[in-house]
Each structure stands twice: as structure tokens, then as C-alpha cells.
Design a protein that fits this description.
alpha+beta, 5-stranded mixed beta sheet, 4-stranded antiparallel beta sheet, 9 helices, about 20% strand
């Protein structure tokens, strides 16, 4: 879609900002926000400060959306005890100053206080609060590029007070924000529909795998009760074995070493967070392990790794030799299957519905999200004849080619929509398009 531009432009005078319409100005944001501040975290050791009725925002709640009732609330005692805690009015815009959420934004739908990682812009006179939000969203990457600090990048409050904004007349600000509210909502709706399509494709993939690894490929094959509630019926000629009886050697925990090195000549130190959901390895999380520590934890082609605790517990992936020499971390458990088995068949089973049902049953029994090597070893697995394992792997691989193509197209469409959304916001708040 093409949009009209303004009749005349002038230089902004700022190296990292574009030209601007000739009747707009460039001014420091602090000249127009009567209140720019932050907050603090009351002592967690004193329960009198928490579970009150005062909203208290942390950066985890900044998701480019309005913030209403907060997850955590503080009390009047906390507000009275900590002078750095301020009440900010509804409409105030918040940006995360540091940490994993640096640059994330939100605005208050209700009055609230904030923690020390939030910078709040409030009580603006010449700038619409919504315009401030969209301006910060447009220049966010530029702001982050100015962050300072070593291990943790930091946008300090002094810098955030000094940033400059384009200032259109208020009537144009209202036009811009109304336009962006409408257009971004339309784009977000399209993105949400495509994400739901990805979810359905993922479910279709899981259903395909589940059917193949528990029922086989012959729909007319005689069935029998597996004797396992969460597995149900399996083909009559299949067996069922515990994982520990399918292994070349016992299940092994990974190395309890810190991921402190990045020497590319050493074996890679693989953690569960290094592997994407599709089983591919990330490049941006590379860590290595000194060879003398890696010995005994080195992986072989086809090894399957289980996450044993935390948010990813139950997640599995199969090591590929093209990843290069690698050792595995302590929160992982290695399964080295017998050579005569098709390792990929078992990796498919560990992505099926029955497997995850088994994981959920483990949690119900223990109430702790942790699966030990002993528990993994006791897991019952359907065992087709070896030639049937090969056919199942080939069948699922062929079907997945089509699903991968569709998923790739949907992901590309989502990326295009996100890029269009970003460009539209930037062009509107910088005056590169004229919004009626």
C-alpha cells in the first residue's frame, strides 16, 4: 500500500534520525514529560510489603500491550517505606532499561508503581502518551545500540531522559496514533491467525508421528492391548520394552561444569537451550568445554538427550555428527541405543502424545518437575520389528517434507507482516508518510 507524503521536509539535524516534515520540530522528550522516573523492589524478606492492592510492574510484564492488574502487588507500607516507589498514572509509557527484556515496552491501563528496571514517561504536555509509545517502538533498536555495560547492557535513565523525538502538532499526533492503533490491530490479527495455523500444523505433525509409532502403517493390522494405560493398543506383532533394555550402555548424566568458555577448537558444550524446537542447533549460544573435561561426555551419532528438569523437562533431541565434536551438560541425560535399532524411530516416539502423557503422569506422581535417569530407564516403549522401524521413519520423513514446506511459507508470511508493521510505525511517527 502506498501513502501520501508531506509537501515539504527539512533535515532533522540528528545523524541517526531521518528527515522530518518542515512544520514538525525535534525536541528532548524530557522537555515535555513532567515525570520521568523509575522504582524499586521492596525487600522480599519482609512479607508486609507484598500481597497488597497496589499494582507493581516488573519488566516481565512489558509486552507492547496495556498493563492492567499486575501479577505482583505491594502494600501501602512498601509505598511509605520506599521513597523511590512512585505512583504513575494510567497512560504512562514504560521501557525496560536492562536485562533480557531491555527495550520492551508497555503502557499503564491502571495506575501503578514499578521496579528499578523500568523507566516511566508520564504526564506529558506537548506529546501524546500513545505517540511516545509508538516513537519509542520505532527507535527501540537505535536506543539499544546506545546501551552501555559489559555483561549486561543498560539503558540508563539519564540517557532515556535525553533522547529526542519528532514533535508533530497534537492533532497530527492523534491522527498518527489512531491510524497505528487500527493498522497494527489488523496486522496483529493476521499474525495471530497464521500462528494458529502453525499450531495446527504442529499438532498434525504430532498426530502423524503418534499414529506411526504406536499403531504402525498398516491400518488393517491386528491389534492387542499393550497393557500400558497411556500407550493403549499396539499392533499384535509388536513388543513393548523398557528403555533401559534397549541401550548399549546405561543412561548417563551430563557434565556438571559451568558454560564459561567459547574456544571454537574445543568440543561444544551442549545444553538444552542450544537446540531449537525443530532439533537444529543454534549458533548464537555457542559454549565449549576443555577437552580434558569433555572426555567421558562426548556424543556419538544418534545419541538421544533428555532434559531432566526445569521448564524444558521431557524435551528430547538427537545429536548429529555434523554438529561437530560435542559434550553434554549436567541437566541432560544421554541415551545411547543399541546399534541394530533405528535411533530415529525412538526419537519420533519421544515426540509423540503417549510419551508426553507418560511425562505428565511422572509429574502427577512426584509433584516435582524432574525426571531422573532411573525413571527414563523404566519407560515402556513400543517395539516394532527393525524393518518396520525403518519404514515408519521413512514414511514420517516423507510426510514431514510437505508440512515443513507449508510451515516455512507461513513463517515467511509472519516475518513479512512483522516487518511491514515495524516499517509502518516508523514511517508514520517520523513523518515519512502523511496520515489523514
Amino acid at each position: 500500500m502506498t501513502y501520501e507524503t508531506y509537501a515539504a521536509y527539512k533535515s532533522s539535524g540528528e545523524q541517526w534520525l531521518k528527515r522530518l516534515p518542515s512544520h514538525w520540530s525535534v525536541e528532548k522528550i524530557s522537555h515535555h514529560c513532567q515525570l520521568i522516573g523509575s522504582g524499586t523492589t521492596p525487600s522480599a524478606s519482609n512479607p508486609i510489603y507484598y500481597d497488597g492492592n497496589i499494582n507493581w510492574v516488573t519488566t516481565s510484564e512489558l509486552r507492547e500491550k496495556p498493563i492492567g492488574e499486575t501479577k505482583n502487588k505491594i502494600t501501602d507500607e512498601a509505598l511509605n517505606q520506599y521513597s523511590s516507589l512512585k505512583f504513575y498514572p494510567a497512560g504512562s509509557v514504560i521501557i525496560a532499561m536492562y536485562g533480557a527484556t531491555i527495550g520492551r515496552l508497555g503502557w499503564l491501563a491502571q495506575p501503578a508503581t514499578v521496579n528499578q528496571a523500568c523507566c516511566v514517561y508520564a504526564n506529558s504536555t506537548k506529546l501524546s502518551q500513545r505517540y511516545i509509545f509508538y516513537w519509542l517502538l520505532a527507535v527501540r533498536n537505535d536506543l539499544i545500540s546506545f546501551a552501555s555495560g559489559g555483561g549486561q547492557q543498560n539503558l540508563n535513565q539519564e540517557f532515556l531522559r535525553s533522547i529526542k523525538t519528532f514533535v508533530p502538532p497534537m492533532s497530527e499526533q492523534e491522527n498518527i496514533t489512531s491510524f497505528l492503533d487500527r493498522k497494527t490491530a489488523e496486522i496483529d490479527t493476521l499474525i495471530a491467525k497464521k500462528r494458529r495455523l502453525l499450531d495446527r500444523l504442529a499438532e498434525k505433525r504430532t498426530a502423524l508421528i503418534t499414529r506411526a509409532v504406536t499403531k504402525g502403517l498398516n491400518p488393517d493390522a491386528p491389534m492387542k492391548d499393550s497393557g500400558i494405560e497411556w500407550l493403549g493398543e499396539i499392533p499384535a506383532h509388536w513388543g513393548v520394552r523398557r528403555l533401559k533394555f534397549l541401550l548399549e550402555e546405561p543412561l548417563k548424566y551430563g557434565a556438571n561444569e559451568a558454560a564459561a568458555f567459547d574456544d571454537p577448537s574445543w568440543p561444544r558444550f551442549i545444553r538444552i537451550t542450544d537446540v531449537r524446537n525443530d532439533g537444529t542447533l543454534r549458533d548464537d549460544t555457542f559454549r565449549s568445554m576443555p577437552p580434558e573435561f569433555a572426555e567421558g561426555y562426548l556424543l556419538e551419532e544418534g545419541d538421544i538427550l533428555f532434559a531432566r528438569s526445569g521448564a524444558t523437562v521431557g524435551k528430547t533431541f538427537q545429536y548429529k555428527s555434523n554438529w561437530g565434536e560435542a559434550a553434554f551438560a549436567g541437566y541432560l541425560i544421554r541415551a545411547r541405543l543399541m546399534k541394530n535399532l533405528n535411533h530415529s524411530y525412538y526419537q519420533l516416539f519421544f515426540n509423540s502424545h503417549p510419551y508426553w502423557e507418560w511425562i505428565r503422569n511422572i509429574f502427577i506422581q512426584s509433584t516435582i518437575q524432574n525426571v531422573s535417569a532411573e525413571k527414563y530407564g523404566s519407560m515402556m516403549i513400543p517395539l516394532p520389528p527393525s524393518e518396520e522401524q525403518d519404514k515408519i521413519v521413512d514414511h514420517v520423513s516423507t510426510e514431514n517434507v510437505h508440512l515443513d514446506k507449508v510451515s516455512s511459507k507461513v513463517n515467511a508470511a509472519i516475518q513479512s507482516l512483522e516487518e511491514y508493521r515495524s516499517a509502518l510505525i516508523t514511517n508514520a511517527v517520523t513523518g515519512q508518510i502523511k496520515v489523514e
